[in-house]
Model the fold of this input.
Amino acid sequence: MAAFLFQPEGDASLRRLRKTGVVRIGYAVEAPFAILGERGEVTGEAPEIARHVVERLGISHIEWRQVELGGLIPELRAGRIDVIASGLFITPERSGKVLFSRPTMAVRQAMLVPAGNPRGLRSYSDMAARPEVIAAVLAGSVEDMLMTRLGVANGRLLRVPDALTGRRAVETGLADALLLSEPSLRWMLSRGEPGRLEVSVDEELESGLPAFAFRLDEAGLRDAWDEALAEYLGSAAHLAMLGSLGLSWAPSATQKVGG
Done:
């Protein structure tokens, strides 16, 4: 497959990666967006798209770097990784720190709760208004940001390093709900003990938009990546990959956002 020749004048970010032949891609494990297989292989929605884009851009090798979610943007800004491929949602706070690609899909926010939803939790705003409710969130996640915006005190947020720890917090009663995207929670539910937990979707919030992230001074790499994305998203190969992960795609959700 021929590599893109696109490279904005004055920006050497893509040229540098083509010369070294290596791109360092950071990810945090959160299925189905980023998955670490039993044999150590990195897969999931974002890594599989990244593989296609990297090949299209003429970069020969990916060096995968696993990082906790809250550490991804600091690692990128410090120059220790070149791209974040982890289903990272576009937010105003993050957009001041990184450049985002066009979104790759749109997903709804949800809650993992005990079976029967004994507290009747229906939305993040409902949880915020009830001082007795404890929410588990991934540290630095969009859910963490959303609950903070809603005025939820730190003492009511159980910040966990990964989704599995959050699930266990709900199972053991340390938290009333784990807040994550609907695809992540349904993936988790399909692979756990049936009947103990269920997913409640927040119908009030706008859908989140996961995307790839780049350093602020590397618009050339981001723009070339976007060009490759525009060609790949919605293709037969893309739709087949999403189907294998139980995901779907809406063309209107993947238009370029911002600059």
The longest strand covers residues 83-89. The radius of gyration is 19 Å.
